[in-house]
Design goal:
Layout: E1 9-12, E2 15-18, E3 21-22, H1 23-30, E4 34-38, H2 39-52, E5 58-63, H3 70-78, E6 82-85, H4 88-96, E7 104-106, H5 113-121, E8 126-129, H6 132-144, E9 149-154, H7 180-187, E10 196-202, H8 213-231, E11 238-240, H9 257-270, E12 274-277, H10 281-284, E13 288-300, E14 303-308, H11 317-321, E15 327-329, E16 338-344, E17 353-361, E18 368-371, E19 392-397, E20 400-405, H12 410-414
Parallel strand pairs: 4-19, 5-6, 5-12, 6-7, 7-8, 8-9, 9-10, 10-11, 11-12, 14-16
Antiparallel strand pairs: 1-2, 2-3, 4-13, 13-14, 13-18, 15-18, 16-17, 19-20
Bound molecules: pyridoxal-5'-phosphate.
């Protein structure tokens, strides 16, 4: 079987470590299922990204939808990152994590009036509008607050990101953004929109993109718009490239962030404006694992099943995207033979699996497995399906750890239903 190792999660004497902490010792203390994150991974990835674009005026806004734990957001904020939020809840989380509103930007194809109002009241750096109707709402709400809202228009560049259809967002058929003609028409209405200041163009063409070309194609299209608008006297302050940079989960060959920068810099250098990025997955995916305990082994009609104590409600990606995650024992034992098994959770759905027909070494009840690359879109997509409590979250910093979210209690589950009728 194959193992996934990195500078952040690696084996020492056959024991999996997160940084300098044994995962076995940690999970024996905090119990499973447990999300375990490496602070050094988050820090290194942020710095790499930032450094790659040092030659231009740029800013990174961590897309906290990938991992919205307050301490994770704070880790990025402390490094100087802004935060991209996609809802009122994420906005409140970013503020609670200590982000300055001037370092916050708000996305969302369907913002409610309440969300728009909060963003304007808090003086966010900008709101990314995605339709003509939304623009008029923003203008109206800003007028009622006697404020000017800073707004970028999300343009759908109609570029194929060659990723999973559910996370492809930059094609004409997708619900996101406005087409280029509508964008130009709206920008030209700037003078009629007294309570809006258009500050930029924004895009986000999808997630888990492993080729540079779609970004280059989209950046070329949008930089042309910026230059066209400039020639008409409409000067924008920034181009927001969105997120989408892919991570290695299995054996995908992703690109180096320096090559990404090298391909894009010539385009950016032609425009006289700042460049924003909203990476999520790139900063978090391989910075986390989900540790789960083997509950049962069984063999049905010659098929092996390993039933573990975490489920699709804890990590949804395999169920909804058929996503691949390496799964490996946290203690390697030389005397074990490899088997082919489905690794599944206790939830009452056949879609509740982490891997199918996976080669894995035999494990015994009570042993722990690590589901790798679980730092992005893991806990943020977790639910209470089957009335299961969501996992604990741990942040490791060298040989120390902090519980950054405790395991839900059963009281949590009943919190919103105080009365029986
Ligand atoms: C608007 C926007 N920005 C940024 C991101 C982050 O994408 P990723 O995690 O692929 O970098 C997303 C993800 O859906 C998004 O919708």
């Amino acid at each position: 079987m194959e193992f996934f190792e990195s500078d952040y999660f690696h084996y020492r004497n056959n024991k999996l470590y997160c940084e300098d902490l044994s995962v076995q010792e940690l999970v024996e203390t905090v119990d499973s299922p447990a999300y375990i994150y490496s602070k050094k991974y988050f820090t290194d990835k942020y710095k790499e990204f930032d450094e790659a674009f040092r030659k231009i005026k740029h800013k990174i806004f961590f897309a906290c939808k990938s991992n919205f734990n307050l301490s994770v957001i704070k880790t990025f904020v402390n490094l100087g990152s802004g935060v991209d939020v996609n809802s009122e809840g994420e906005l409140l989380r970013a503020l609670k994590a200590g982000a300055n509103p001037q370092n916050l930007i708000m996305s969302g194809v369907g913002k409610t009036p309440e969300e728009i109002k909060l963003a304007i009241e808090k003086d966010l750096l900008m709101i990314k509008a995605e339709s003509e109707e939304e623009i008029f709402w923003i203008n109206k709400i800003a007028l009622s607050l006697n404020k000017t809202a800073r707004v970028a228009l999300r343009v759908n560049p109609d570029v194929d990101a060659h990723t999973h259809p559910y996370i492809s967002t930059g094609l004409a058929e997708n619900k996101f953004g406005v087409d280029t003609e509508t964008a130009m028409k709206l920008f030209r209405k700037q003078n009629d929109l007294k309570n809006i200041k258009f500050t930029g163009i924004d895009m986000h063409i999808g997630s888990q993109i492993i080729k540079i070309e779609p970004f280059v194609e989209a950046a070329n299209k949008l930089s042309e718009l910026i230059l066209q608008l400039k020639s008409e006297g409409i000067v924008l302050e920034h181009l927001d490239m969105g997120g989408g940079v892919g991570s290695t989960y299995n054996n995908e060959k992703t690109f180096e962030i320096n090559d990404f920068a090298k391909s894009l810099l010539p385009i950016f250098q032609k425009m006289d404006c700042d460049v924003f990025f909203e990476p999520g997955r790139y900063l978090t995916a391989n910075g986390g694992i989900l540790v789960t305990k083997v509950l049962y082994n069984k063999n049905n009609h010659d098929k092996n099943f390993i039933i573990v104590d975490s489920a699709m409600n804890d990590l949804l990606r395999p169920s909804i995207y058929s996503a691949y995650h390496h799964i490996q024992p946290i203690i390697l034992k030389n005397d074990r033979k490899n088997i082919v098994a489905d690794i599944v959770g206790p939830v009452c759905e056949s879609g509740d699996f982490f891997a199918k027909k996976r080669e894995i070494s035999e494990s015994i009840q009570g042993e722990y497995l690590a589901i790798m690359s679980a730092g992005a879109y893991g806990m943020t997509m977790a639910s209470n399906y089957n009335s299961r409590r969501r996992p604990i979250e741990i942040l490791v910093d060298r040989d120390k750890y902090k519980i950054i979210r405790s395991r839900e209690t059963f009281d949590h589950l009943f919190f919103d239903e105080p009365e029986l009728i």
